[in-house]
Amino acid sequence: MNERRWNRRFNFTGENSKGSLTEGSVIKGFLLFALPLFLGSLFQQLYGTTDLIFVGNFMGKTEAAAVGASSILITCLIGLFTGISVGAGVITGNFQGAGEKERVRNSIENALALAFFGGLFLMMLGQVLAEQALIWLNTPENIMKEALTYVRIYLMAVLSMILYNMCAGIFRALGDSKTPFLVLAAGGILNVGMDALIIASLHQGVAGAAVATLISQTFTTVVLLFLLFRREKLWKGKWNVTHEMLFLIIKTGVPLGIQSVILTISNIFVQYYINGFGENAIAAFTVYFKAENFLYLPIMAFGQAMVTFTSQNAGAGKYERIKKAEISCNLVAALIIGGLAALLLCIDRKFTGIFCKDPDVISVACQIIHITFPFYFIYSIMELTGSVVRGLKKTFLSMVIVIVDLCLVRVLILAWLVAYFHSVSMVAMVYPMTWLLAMFSFLLCYRKSELFRSF
Fold first, then answer.
1. Is residue 22 a contact partner of residue 318, using CB atoms and an 8 Å limit?
2. How far apart (Å, rounded) are the C-alpha atoms in residues 66 and 140?
3. Distance CA 121, CA 137 (A)
4. Cα dihedral across residues 383, 387, 390, 392: positive or negative
5. What does the pLDDT profile of the chain (455 residues) look like in tens digits?
6. Rounded Cα–Cα distance for residues 323 and 302 (Å)
7. Rounded to whole angstroms, what are the CA distances from 86 to 3, 18, 19, 165, 224?
């Protein structure tokens, strides 16, 4: 296939006319852009669950616990750069919307350089701190050896993970959500195949699970990097890494990274209170968190789409489209999420039975679902409005709202409710309460912004 046919087939011309969110129907463009993001997030779950499924079924509970004990460490380690990749996408999307091709290229060059050297540093830092970090996380002695083996191998994939997230964020900023999805789907399928081969056939345990993830993650990163270099012709000319562009990316992205890390830490405190209710409650919340992915993942896809939509249209100076999208897309997303929630509420016991067969656990999980699912439309409005704020580069305000409303206030309310009522339902109730608070905070931030006052 020659280069012209390749570019035409995969839309890697660099012109990106079809991927622009600055023209055409707001709702149609938003939904078509969000769909690959949602499908991609489903495949992203393969990386987080396939290792656990194969280890749990073919090895034992000690190995499965080792994999689970390591996940929070890795999430915290890459959380900062996950936020920076969103920030880089906002900056690139601004330049893309404004039609400033040279600055688009320069933002990509700086973002990739930052991801490479930052990922390399975190990979080495993680290797040095891995054992001590697992001790800080109170990892039981009987799984420490297996957990350390898993995390040391898995940490070798941190550089690939950070580079992949940065590349995917850049593609989204350019208006292309399909390419990262296709590459991620291929990587997810490869991960399943590698787990089946290394764990089920070769019986390599947690080390094999980590190696499978390392191979599949490296594959997706190399492929996506190749496609990005080919699309933007990054191999041509001298790379121009500047302090000004790096500072702009860091200024926009670091607050999002900090909010991601602190939100993860706050979830550890929530888990602490859940653990106090015993085995059934722990298992029930585990089932609930798996079930809620059917609402959480489309909400996250809508949020990512809104960040890109806002950043591109802000760069193009089309603020009327942003204002229209904030209202219409919020309404459409809330209706979709509300409909999905209603459907899942109707089949709650059958649905939770997919993840667990214990009737006591299912009863508690259904109790949690009936408390939270009716309010997921609030979560949707909160996330999309927050995404508009982030797309307008008000990332520091976003960080403050998330840290205060979804972290500090959530933990304080939870401590009070559990102390006075000591009920699993009170733990569940804290989620919609803090979603509502954060939703009003983001709406107030948006309404008070210069964008809203300009109309």
1. yes
2. 9
3. 22
4. negative
5. 444 444 444 444 333 444 578 888 999 999 999 999 888 887 776 666 665 566 656 565 555 555 655 666 777 777 778 888 988 999 999 999 988 988 999 999 999 999 999 999 989 988 888 888 777 766 777 777 877 888 888 889 899 999 999 999 999 999 898 999 999 889 888 888 887 887 767 767 777 778 888 898 899 999 999 999 988 887 777 788 889 999 999 999 889 888 888 887 888 788 778 878 877 887 788 788 878 888 998 999 999 999 999 999 999 999 999 999 999 999 999 999 999 999 999 998 988 887 777 888 889 889 999 999 999 999 999 999 999 999 998 999 999 999 999 999 999 999 999 888 888 889 999 999 999 999 999 999 888 876 555 54
6. 16
7. 30, 22, 18, 9, 17
Closest CA to 298 of 332, 264, 258: 332
Separation of alpha carbons 423 and 280, rounded Å: 13
- Could you please report the per-residue DSSP string of 279-313? HHHHHHHHHHHHHTHHHHHHHHHHHHHHHHHHHHH
Distance CA 146, CA 62 (A): 8
| Domain positions in the chain | 38-241, 259-455
Specify the pTM.
Answer: 0.82
Residue 419 makes CB contacts below 8 A (sequence gap 6+) with: none
Question: What residues contact 450, with CB distance under 8 A and at least 6 apart?
Answer: none
Q: Are 384 and 329 in contact (CB under 8 A)?
A: yes
Element (H, E) at 39: helix 26-58
**Residue whose pair of structure tokens reads 């011309």 in the numeric block:** 13
Q: DSSP states of 200-262 as a string?
A: IIT--HHHHHHHHHHHHHHHHHHHHHHHHHHHHTTTSS-----HHHHHHHHHHHHHHHHHHHH
The amino acid occupying position 193 is G
Specify the residue for token string 């850049």. 170
* Residues 6+ positions from 46 with CB-CB distance below 8 Å: 188, 191, 192
235-242 — which CB contacts under 8 Å span 24+ positions? 239/109, 239/113, 240/106, 240/109, 241/109, 241/110, 241/113, 242/106, 242/110
Contact 88, 166 (CB under 8 A): yes
Rounded Cα gap, residues 366 and 360, in angstroms: 10
329 burial level (CB within 10 Å; 0-12, 13-18, 19+): buried
